[in-house]
User: Fold this.
Amino acid sequence: MIVTETAYSLDPASLLDSLAGTDNLLIIQDLDGVCMDLVRDPLTRTLDPAYLQAAHALHGHFQVLTNGEHLGSRGVNGLVERAIGSAQRCREQGLYLPGLAAGGVQVQDRHGRISHPGVSTEELAFLAAAPAWLNESLKQLLQQAPYQLADRDIERLLASSVLDNPVSPTLNLNAFHHHWSDRPALYARLQADGAGLLQALLEGAAAQGLAQSFFVHYAPNLGRDTDGRERLRPAQGSAAGTYPLGEAFNVRQAPASLDALLQLAVERFDPRHMPRLVGVGDTLTSAPASADDGGTHWLRGGSDRGFLTLVQALGEAFGQDNRVLYVDSSQGEVQRPGVDATYLRDHPLAPWPALDGITDARDPLRLNTLFADGPRQYVAFFGDLARARQSR
Assistant:
C-alpha cells in the first residue's frame, strides 16, 4: 500500500524510519546546496567528513547526480580529498561520491574510477579549449562599454567566473552579481551578453562538425521553450553486471522528454528489482507569466526539476512510494527563493505563499519533505539514516 501525503512535511522523522526499513532503496542526490552550502566561488566549498562516511555506509543505496564535475580544479573529488586528508585513502577505502556528473556524461564509482561514455575525443578536445576562449572573449567584452571595468577587476572576477571544468565549461556570473549589487540593469545586460558568448561557442562547435554535440544549460532557468532550449531566468538497486538499458547505453541514447524516459523505464526495468527512489535537490523555480488569453500560466524550471519529476513519475508507474526531498539552500551566498517555515506550519493545506518562487498550486511536482534549515539539517538527517540502516 502506498502512503501519500496531503501536506508538505517539515519533520523528516517519520521519513527516516520509513527509509531505514526499506531494503531496496536508492537515494539520488544533488550536491551544491544539498550537502554543502551554496557559495559564489566554488573553490571555497567544503564537505563534512561525517557526510562522506555516511555516503560510504550507504554503498549500493546512494548515487549523486550533478551538473558539476568529479574532476578538475573545481571538481567535487578535490573537496572529498581535502575533507578526508588523503587521496590514497579515498581511493583505497572508496570514499569518493559515486554517480553521474557533468549533467550525466561523467561517471564515477566510489574508488574514483571515472569514464565519459558516449563522448568522443574530438568533443573532449573542443571542451578543453572552451574555457580559454570564454575567458578571452569575456575579458574583451568587459573592457568595452557599458562595462568598462579596470583590468585588475576583470582578472579578479574572471578567476571565479570562467570555470575550467573538463566536460562542462561554465560561466558562473555570481561574482558579477555581487560586484554590481547596486546596478542590477548592468548585471542583467551581462547575463544577455554571456548567453550570446555561449551561443557563439555552439556555433563554433557546429563549424567543426559538432553541431549535435553540445547544449547550453542555464541555472537558474524558466523551463524550456517550444524548440527545447532552456529559458534564461533574468536577474531578479539491480545486481552488479545487469544492464537493462544495454551495457553500452549512455546519455546520447537517453530520450529528451519525460514521457519517453518514463516509457523506456517501463519497457526495460523489471518491477521486481525496481528500488524505492528518493530524489534530493535544491534548485526549483516557478514564476507566473501572462498568457495570450489574458490569464496567467506558470514557467517552471530549475536544474533539479527534471530528475525529481522523473523520480516522482517512476514511483507512480511502478507502484513505489518514491519520495522527493527539497533542501532550502537560500541561506547560502547565492540569492534564491527560500521556504517560509513559519507560514507553512500555520497553513499546512494552503502553503503556496511559503513556497513562492519554488513551486505553485498547479505544479505537478510535489515535494514530500522540506529541509527548511538547509544543508546542515539534511546532512544530519543523512548521517542518522546511514546509522539507522547499519544498526538494523
